[in-house]
Automatic annotation (TrEMBL):
InterPro entries: Ala-tRNA-synth_IIc_core (IPR018165), Alanyl-tRNA_Editing_Enzymes (IPR051335), DHHA1_dom (IPR003156), Thr/Ala-tRNA-synth_IIc_edit (IPR018163), Transl_B-barrel_sf (IPR009000), tRNA_SAD (IPR012947). Its main location: cytoplasm. Gene3D superfamilies: 2.40.30.130, 3.10.310.40, Threonyl-trna Synthetase, Chain A, domain 2. It is found in: Cytoplasm. Residues 1-238 form the Alanyl-transfer RNA synthetases family profile domain. It comes from Metabacillus herbersteinensis. This is DHHA1 domain-containing protein. Signal peptide: none annotated. Residues 261-288 form a coiled coil.
């Protein structure tokens, strides 16, 4: 059994110890087992430590059948030697802060409102707990946050104790334990009593501070996102940077930001509406101009043109406006839109050309899809030919179908 130095002192950053085994696991990854280790293996919601053994990076630490496996970037050249191990202290201390913070947060929710924590996740940026409740109010969250930060300020001890099953009854545990031996309790006197195998600082003051960031419904529970310690500063820094940029961009003070954004959105909505109206008016003028460009091809009066990058909705609206101006024409409008060809074909009320057979002839040429009535139809497909070539085919199909 490896001596768990992280339990003897969670502050052990480096250590020397003999290697007891070096082997490959089923997946072919090298790992070593040590006589003693300060590397915490993934467990109890807390991620594993990283660091190095004799300068070789430890990329993962897992406890498999009570064997603590240190997965290395490359195997140790001499597996008989005593090796020197160093853990990434910043990462570990951050985990200790988040983990101890979680204990305090869960304890405060239970103490103040009897809200039970059902799970904990220590994330890379943000940690979460899930509470077995359906709703949480702003007021409750603030109260819990204040309580946690008061307990942090009071700098109470955080004690870790090994006890046997009989001794357990002396402690007001929050949750019934799943294990019956090697029971480790983590205790903040008069506040929190928990079975836990993680690493924690020895005082609440080292958690430094806790901030609840947000909460959301997660199935039938409430998921609370929070940060502790240096992460609070990091969050504040990130949010401040965003706010500072926004105050500059919006030319509004921090407190007036929401109002400024609301105004901006309202403005943009009004502008969109105005642009839509102007476009519709423009189409009316465009339609009038097209109405005077009637060509006679094989005895049939036709208006045709090719656009670049014009939405099909505009083509439709333009075609409708043109047939409102002239009644004895057939209209072919084509748009070359990136790698697509889109078109509208329509007839005026005095024309009797049927658009359906035209569509049937044209769509296969461009691998296209479309639909419409005998008097008005549209389609689109691949740009297998140019817009002009497509117009020619439309004109020809128009003469042959009649
Ligand atoms: Zn814990």
């Amino acid at each position: 059994m490896t001596t768990k130095l992280y339990y003897q002192s969670p502050y052990t950053e480096s250590f020397s110890t003999p290697v007891t085994k070096q082997a490959k696991d089923e997946a072919g990854n090298w790992f070593v087992v040590l006589e003693g280790t300060a590397f915490y293996p993934t467990g109890g919601g807390q991620p594993h430590d990283t660091g190095n053994l004799n300068g070789i990076s430890v990329v993962d630490v897992q406890e498999v059948d009570s064997e603590i496996r240190h997965y290395l970037e490359s195997p140790l050249p001499d597996s008989n030697a005593v090796i020197h191990g160093e853990i990434d202290w910043n990462r570990r201390f951050d985990h200790m802060q988040q983990h101890a913070g979680q204990h305090l947060l869960s304890a405060a929710f239970e103490e103040l409102f009897s809200y039970k924590t059902v799970s904990f996740h220590l994330g890379k940026e943000i940690s979460t707990i899930d509470l077995a409740i359906k709703d949480l109010t702003e007021k409750e969250a603030v109260e819990v946050e204040n309580t946690v930060n008061r307990v942090i300020r009071e700098n109470r001890p955080i004690e870790a104790k090994w006890v046997n099953e009989q001794e357990l009854s002396q402690y007001p545990l929050r949750k019934k334990l799943a294990v019956t031996e090697n029971i480790r309790l983590v205790i903040v006197p008069d506040f929190d009593y928990n079975g836990c195998g993680g690493t924690h600082p020895e005082t609440t003051g080292e958690v430094s501070t806790l901030k609840i960031l947000s909460w959301e419904k997660q199935r039938k529970q409430i998921r609370i996102s929070f940060v502790c310690g240096n992460r609070v500063l990091k969050q504040l820094h990130q949010k401040q940077a965003v706010l500072t940029q926004l105050t500059g961009l919006l030319n509004a003070p921090e407190q007036g930001m929401v109002e400024a954004v609301k105004r901006l959105l309202e403005q943009s909505k009004n502008q969109d509406k105005a642009i839509k109206e102007v476009k519709e008016e423009l189409i009316q003028y465009e339609a009038k101009s097209f109405a005077s460009q009637v060509e006679t091809i094989s005895g049939r009066k036709i208006i045709k043109t090719v656009f670049q990058n014009r939405p099909i909705a505009e083509l439709q609206s333009l075609a409708r406006s043109i047939i409102a101006e002239v009644s004895n024409v057939v209209i072919f409008l084509v748009a070359e839109n990136e790698d697509k060809l889109q078109f509208v074909c329509a007839r005026g009320s005095a024309s009797d050309v049927n658009m359906k057979p035209i569509l049937e002839k044209i769509l296969p040429i461009i691998n296209g899809k479309g639909g419409g009535s005998e008097s008005f139809a549209q389609g689109g497909g691949e740009n297998l030919l140019s817009g002009e070539e497509l117009i020619d085919k439309l004109v020809i199909s128009c003469s042959t179908t009649f």
